[in-house]
Amino acid sequence: MKSATSTSPVIGTSPRRVEGARPYNVPMESPPEPYVVLRQSALMLNCADLEPALHDIRMALDPSAADGVPAHLNLLYPFTTRLSVEQDDQLNQVLRDFGRFQLEFSTTAWFGTDSVYLPPTDPVILNNLVTRIRDLFPDHPAFGAVPERAIPHVTIGKRAPLEALKAAEVRVLKHLPIVQRCTTVELWSGPPPGTGAWRRHRTYALGS
Q: Which pLDDT does position 81 carry in this prediction?
């Protein structure tokens, strides 16, 4: 009697390769990396009490407003979103210990002729706050990335025609003085201004 032909593969031989298939034991290639925009970040005071006076103006004259960032005062910028649990806890404790405070804005000021802003009447408390934060993060600059403009300020408008900035200044002056109640510090991040939306990552309480 004729024995049946076996259909099992012979040990020691490779299974038949399907045409066009990936070779066996060769790692699959990773998909191509999408275009990644280098992200920026900032640790800031959200100046909600200034928003009614500044919102429409900032939407027209401040690129960060179009990116979704509210009226704000940068404390450390650029900052980072890659905090360890220990760093996050330390920052949280420093801000709780510092407590709540108020800022008054009673006048406007300029950086050259391309940026108009609101300076706090008394910046001492902000300098004290930033000093304590920078004890934890000494590598991150206070109040902005441009050294000659690294003072406490809330931008009204920038990189716009001078006449538009002057008109905005006149409008804002009519609302002053304004008192900003500072109860939280926020961590925001996003791509370079004008290239995409920013989002809030973390909110830290000032005081308990």
A: 73
**Which phi and psi (to 5°) does residue 167 adopt?**
-65, -40
What are the φ and ψ backbone dihedral angles of 125, each rounded to 5 degrees? -65, -35
Q: Which amino acid is at 55?
A: H
Q: Residue 180: which of 142, 206, 150, 200 has the closest Cα?
A: 206
Alpha helices (H) along the chain: 51-61, 63-66, 85-98, 124-136, 162-173
pLDDT at 6: 45
Q: CATH topology for 40-205?
A: Cyclic Phosphodiesterase; Chain: A, (3.90.1140)
Q: How far apart are CA 192 and CA 40, in angstroms?
A: 6
Q: What are the pLDDT digits (tens) for 85-125?
A: 999 999 999 999 999 999 999 999 999 999 999 999 999 99
- CA gap 135, 125 in Å, rounded: 16
Residue of 81, 44, 67 whose CA lies nearest to 182:
44
Give SS3 for 125. helix
Report whether 186 contacts 177 (CB < 8 A): no
